[in-house]
Amino acid sequence: MTSRRPRAHRIADIAVIAVTVSALAALAAPAEAATSGTTGAAAADVDHATWQRDCRAVMDQALPYLEQRIAAARPGERQAIVFDVDNTTLETDFGFSFPQPANKPVLDVAAYAQRHGVSLFFVTARPGIIAAPTEWNLAHDGYQVAGLSVRGLIDLFKDVAAYKTAQRVAIENRGYTIIANIGNSASDLSGGHAEKTFKLPDYDGQLS
């Protein structure tokens, strides 16, 4: 028979997880410089409202494409979208807490896709040690997680773009057609294995 931990200890555990997730996520940014992808404001002017406006502008382009592509699904086709996590699906730089808030423009697009039977996969440079809280955070915010790829010890020493491309190949090998790949860094989107890519702003690498 297992004993239940005191409430004070459980609260302390949650606080430790919050700090760990936020700190390790901040360290998970790709080592190489990302392309600017600046939409609207210059990097020096970035605030949450600007970022949300610029993310919405990109997702306003993605949604009509997805509506048409989902409607045109071939018989038996298993459609999927691949998302980055930090500053793509979650507000990492603007939500330094746990759970981190969803990036609302991206969540709106993801919600449409999952309502129409599209599987959502998440490929992140975050280390494996925070896989469980990351998946919980995504589900808590409303994402239906069909799969989450994090970096193991070997992957930590690999080129981030190559690692993420390999994860998309693995998803295709499971029988999925990746109809879109959404991220905020060049390393999220390079390497192919997606019918279309959508780049969110990173303001010359200012956002992880």
TrEMBL record:
It holds the Pfam family Acid_phosphat_B. The keyword Signal applies. Keywords: Hydrolase, Signal. SUPFAM superfamilies: HAD-like. The keyword Hydrolase applies. One of its GO terms (molecular function) is hydrolase activity. Residues 1-33 form the signal peptide. This is Hydrolase. The lineage of its organism: Bacteria, Bacillati, Actinomycetota, Actinomycetes, Kitasatosporales.
